[in-house]
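[09:14] KT: can someone run the structure on this one? pasting the chain below
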Amino acid sequence: MDREQRKATAYTVELIGATTLYAISLFARRPLLRATPDGVLHTLILLLPILPILLMAAVIVRHYLRLDEYFRHVFLQSFAVCAAVAACLTSSFPFLKDAFGLHDISITFAWPVLGACWFVASFVTMFQQRAMTRAAGA
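[09:31] RB: done, C-alpha coordinates below
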Protein backbone atom coordinates (compact mmCIF):
# COMPACT_ATOMS: atom_id res chain seq x y z
CA MET A 1 0.00 0.00 0.00
CA ASP A 2 1.51 3.33 -1.03
CA ARG A 3 1.49 6.53 1.00
CA GLU A 4 -1.62 8.02 -0.66
CA GLN A 5 -3.59 4.82 -0.13
CA ARG A 6 -2.63 4.79 3.56
CA LYS A 7 -3.81 8.40 3.87
CA ALA A 8 -7.09 7.53 2.16
CA THR A 9 -7.59 4.49 4.38
CA ALA A 10 -6.92 6.48 7.55
CA TYR A 11 -9.34 9.17 6.38
CA THR A 12 -12.03 6.62 5.57
CA VAL A 13 -11.71 4.90 8.95
CA GLU A 14 -11.75 8.22 10.82
CA LEU A 15 -14.73 9.55 8.87
CA ILE A 16 -16.72 6.33 9.27
CA GLY A 17 -16.04 6.46 13.02
CA ALA A 18 -17.17 10.09 13.29
CA THR A 19 -20.24 9.42 11.13
CA THR A 20 -21.12 6.41 13.27
CA LEU A 21 -20.90 8.55 16.39
CA TYR A 22 -23.20 11.10 14.72
CA ALA A 23 -25.77 8.41 13.87
CA ILE A 24 -25.60 6.98 17.39
CA SER A 25 -26.06 10.43 18.91
CA LEU A 26 -29.11 11.05 16.72
CA PHE A 27 -30.76 7.73 17.54
CA ALA A 28 -29.90 7.84 21.25
CA ARG A 29 -31.00 11.43 21.66
CA ARG A 30 -34.79 10.95 21.77
CA PRO A 31 -34.88 8.10 24.31
CA LEU A 32 -32.36 9.93 26.47
CA LEU A 33 -34.41 13.13 26.30
CA ARG A 34 -37.56 11.27 27.37
CA ALA A 35 -35.73 9.73 30.32
CA THR A 36 -34.12 12.98 31.47
CA PRO A 37 -35.95 15.81 33.23
CA ASP A 38 -35.37 19.40 32.14
CA GLY A 39 -32.09 20.79 33.33
CA VAL A 40 -28.42 20.87 32.49
CA LEU A 41 -28.21 17.19 31.51
CA HIS A 42 -31.26 17.61 29.26
CA THR A 43 -29.58 20.56 27.52
CA LEU A 44 -26.35 18.59 27.09
CA ILE A 45 -28.27 15.74 25.48
CA LEU A 46 -29.92 18.24 23.11
CA LEU A 47 -26.45 19.43 22.11
CA LEU A 48 -24.95 15.92 21.86
CA PRO A 49 -24.90 15.65 18.01
CA ILE A 50 -22.72 18.77 17.77
CA LEU A 51 -19.66 16.86 18.99
CA PRO A 52 -19.61 14.28 16.17
CA ILE A 53 -20.33 17.06 13.65
CA LEU A 54 -17.24 18.91 14.87
CA LEU A 55 -15.30 15.64 14.79
CA MET A 56 -16.34 15.05 11.16
CA ALA A 57 -15.20 18.55 10.24
CA ALA A 58 -11.86 17.97 12.00
CA VAL A 59 -11.37 14.67 10.16
CA ILE A 60 -12.06 16.33 6.80
CA VAL A 61 -9.69 19.24 7.48
CA ARG A 62 -7.00 16.88 8.77
CA HIS A 63 -7.26 14.77 5.63
CA TYR A 64 -7.12 17.83 3.40
CA LEU A 65 -3.95 19.03 5.13
CA ARG A 66 -2.31 15.62 4.58
CA LEU A 67 -2.83 15.76 0.81
CA ASP A 68 -0.35 16.98 -1.76
CA GLU A 69 -1.22 19.83 -4.12
CA TYR A 70 -2.75 17.68 -6.89
CA PHE A 71 -4.93 15.65 -4.55
CA ARG A 72 -6.02 18.84 -2.76
CA HIS A 73 -7.24 20.11 -6.12
CA VAL A 74 -9.12 16.87 -6.80
CA PHE A 75 -10.53 16.90 -3.26
CA LEU A 76 -11.80 20.48 -3.54
CA GLN A 77 -13.22 19.85 -6.99
CA SER A 78 -15.25 16.84 -5.84
CA PHE A 79 -16.33 18.67 -2.70
CA ALA A 80 -17.48 21.71 -4.71
CA VAL A 81 -19.62 19.53 -6.97
CA CYS A 82 -21.16 17.57 -4.09
CA ALA A 83 -21.78 20.73 -2.06
CA ALA A 84 -23.64 22.23 -5.01
CA VAL A 85 -25.74 19.08 -5.47
CA ALA A 86 -26.46 18.83 -1.73
CA ALA A 87 -27.41 22.53 -1.59
CA CYS A 88 -29.81 22.04 -4.52
CA LEU A 89 -31.38 18.98 -2.91
CA THR A 90 -31.82 20.49 0.54
CA SER A 91 -32.98 23.87 -0.80
CA SER A 92 -35.48 22.44 -3.25
CA PHE A 93 -37.05 19.96 -0.80
CA PRO A 94 -39.47 22.52 0.73
CA PHE A 95 -40.88 23.19 -2.74
CA LEU A 96 -41.20 19.47 -3.48
CA LYS A 97 -42.84 19.05 -0.09
CA ASP A 98 -45.42 21.74 -0.90
CA ALA A 99 -46.07 20.44 -4.41
CA PHE A 100 -46.45 16.77 -3.51
CA GLY A 101 -47.60 16.92 0.11
CA LEU A 102 -44.46 15.32 1.51
CA HIS A 103 -43.67 15.29 5.22
CA ASP A 104 -41.28 17.74 6.84
CA ILE A 105 -37.75 16.53 7.37
CA SER A 106 -35.28 17.80 9.88
CA ILE A 107 -32.19 19.81 9.02
CA THR A 108 -30.24 16.92 10.59
CA PHE A 109 -30.51 15.28 7.17
CA ALA A 110 -28.27 17.96 5.62
CA TRP A 111 -25.04 16.21 6.69
CA PRO A 112 -26.13 12.77 5.45
CA VAL A 113 -27.22 14.28 2.11
CA LEU A 114 -23.87 16.05 1.78
CA GLY A 115 -22.08 12.85 2.79
CA ALA A 116 -23.96 10.76 0.24
CA CYS A 117 -23.21 13.27 -2.50
CA TRP A 118 -19.56 13.32 -1.47
CA PHE A 119 -19.45 9.53 -1.45
CA VAL A 120 -20.74 9.41 -5.03
CA ALA A 121 -18.41 12.24 -6.12
CA SER A 122 -15.45 10.42 -4.57
CA PHE A 123 -16.22 7.25 -6.50
CA VAL A 124 -16.65 9.18 -9.76
CA THR A 125 -13.32 10.91 -9.13
CA MET A 126 -11.64 7.60 -8.30
CA PHE A 127 -12.87 6.02 -11.54
CA GLN A 128 -11.75 9.08 -13.52
CA GLN A 129 -8.30 8.84 -11.94
CA ARG A 130 -8.03 5.15 -12.85
CA ALA A 131 -9.17 5.83 -16.42
CA MET A 132 -6.60 8.64 -16.79
CA THR A 133 -3.86 6.39 -15.37
CA ARG A 134 -4.74 3.59 -17.79
CA ALA A 135 -4.89 5.98 -20.74
CA ALA A 136 -1.50 7.45 -19.83
CA GLY A 137 0.00 3.97 -19.53
CA ALA A 138 -1.39 2.72 -22.86
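[09:33] KT: thanks! Residues 1-66 form one domain.
[09:34] RB: yep, looked fine to me
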